[in-house]
Amino acid sequence: MKKTIRDYELENKKVIIRVDFNVPISDGKITDDNRIIQSLDTIKYAKEQGAKIILMSHLGRIKSEEDKEKNSLKIVASYLSKILNDDVLFSESTRGDELEDLINNLNPGEIVLMENTRYEDLDGNKESSNDPELGEYWASLGDIFINDAFGTSHRSHASNVGIASHLPSGIGFLIEKELNALSVLDNPERPFVVILGGSKVSDKIGVIKNLVNVADYILIGGGMAYTFLKASGLSIGKSLLDSENISFCEEMLNKYRDKLILPIDSVNAKEISENASTNECFISDIKEDDIGLDIGHSTIKLFKQYLNDSKTVIWNGPVGYSEIEQFSNGTKELCEALKNIDAIKIIGGGDTAAAVINFGFKDAFNHISTGGGASLEYLEGKSLPGIEIISDK
Length: 393
Ligand code: ADP
Ligand code: MG
Prior knowledge:
CATH topology of the largest domain: Rossmann fold
Largest sheet: 6 strands, parallel
Structural class: alpha/beta
Bound molecules: adenosine-5'-diphosphate, magnesium ion
């Protein structure tokens, strides 16, 4: 068990909290504040306990001087200040006098947000390659380190692993919540059904290999289903084909024929476009010039039968090209079905989370993971370095 923020006496301590403020910004406006909202519990708790709070986060990627301007955390500081109804100081530098003075002058309960940790990437990729000097320097600014950035916990960066190597450390409430939810995998109530979709098989090989051992059934939809169908000898027209992984799919189907449930019909179109007209057919009838873009009605019915009996469901990857209305029906229908099913239901995967929230089914799930890549690696059974490094209880 990892230590959490609750395991430390925070009063008067300089507490560095690594948050995930990697929010989408367009025309100088934050277009989705979910990540900021999700960090509030930890920040508020630290404040109540009288910590001197130092917030760090990355935002986007910094490869050139121009990237710095569009990826400044300054507007996040004002946004946070507004929703906390409290002052949030901002350090424009990621090291040096300005930053150190702001930190050293903090009173208990006061908050400073440091500029984007990835500004350090311009000079030798220091943040993203976990430069040892940088991690040690940032650690020297605080007394305790709390990691609450689940979304980057699968990466070993100076602002998580680097700092944690030098300070007593713990996880924040958001990571704690993520780990609690995802740990259903350790001992799932059964039947345990996984819905897997998305685009390429290659993105999900690790997930399939890991979950096939734990799950009772894996319902396969989305673009990746077509490579499985191809591997079982069917013609898939112009549907997404991951030709390098046909033999992997074949091997999986041979080994786990009863566990892997493939679509039996498909919604197709000649082009991936908002104006495309669609046709629906049995999986054996996909025309040469058609692209399979969603599961059909019979597949929805089939998948629902598995879901109806389930006690645990993990869903990664939309079952169709759900960004476009005509191909979103399968994903929506599964959401609708899951809403009424009494099981533990978890969403892992950035696009799946976006789709489910966008379609208005947020409340149908017990947990929607905030970390796209991190939740995927968790589902692959990998350990997450940003959490691994945290002090044990
Ligand atoms: P997540 O981010 O939840 O892990 P992925 O990134 O694996 O999900 O997959 C999401 C993408 O898969 C979406 O952009 C979606 O359009 C695409 N997709 C789903 N079904 C198909 C399909 N039949 N053909 C092509 N792309 C698809
Ligand atoms: Mg994705």
